Amino acid sequence: MTRGMADKRKLKSKRMILIFLASIVGGGFVWAFITAWLITTYSEQASTRISDAAIILGAAVVGNEPSPVFRERIEHAILLYHQGAVSQLLFTGGAGSVEQRSEAEVGRDYAIAHGVNPADIQLETQSRITEENFKYSIGVGEQAGFHTYTIVSDPLHMKRAMMLASGLGMDVVPSPTLTTAYQTWRSKLPFLLRETILYMGYVCKGWIDNPQQP
């Protein structure tokens, strides 16, 4: 084999590698775009089913007050409660530190102040992330006799939330907030990017954990 032929083969190999890498990167961008589009379109899905309880996903609190994002979720759950779409509210979310009150406790107090019967409220105060919101709520719900749930969260959060809850075997339907603190694309875009990355990550995790599933 001449030196020229060897150089040509090396160049061809490098090109094939670059094409392969470019295909992976390009495919990743296409997948991300499709995922973001699916998340955005799913944000408009809202079920009218009557469930045993609304499960309100926690968000930040400031002292004894819910953040604007959390307040939107609480008020939407209160609306469902007063409309009779749910008979109980299950607030989720732990505390950031020992000195702070849990998100669930702050949500409960806000709901009681706005006409919800304290006897119709359940709390889950251990979780830190969305997956834990559902994981720790299962036991609370079982003890309270809940079988069906309506998930309350921000519209762009709903697709991933539904995926996580369904993956844990929960009977859930979506009910995104009618309004959201993420009102401009300057605030929506980072949230959408985050949800897209996390959703794709959970999909990949599912493929790894269950390689036989399509």
UniProtKB/TrEMBL annotation:
Domain DUF218: 52-197
Pfam family, one: DUF218
InterPro entries from the UniProt entry: Cell_Envelope_Assoc (IPR051599), DUF218 (IPR003848), Rossmann-like_a/b/a_fold (IPR014729)
Entry annotated with the keyword Repeat: no
Transmembrane segments: 16-39
Keyword hit for Transmembrane helix: yes
Keywords: Membrane, Transmembrane, Transmembrane helix
Cellular component, GO, one term: plasma membrane
UniProt name for this protein: Uncharacterized SAM-binding protein YcdF (DUF218 family)
Species of origin: Paenibacillus amylolyticus
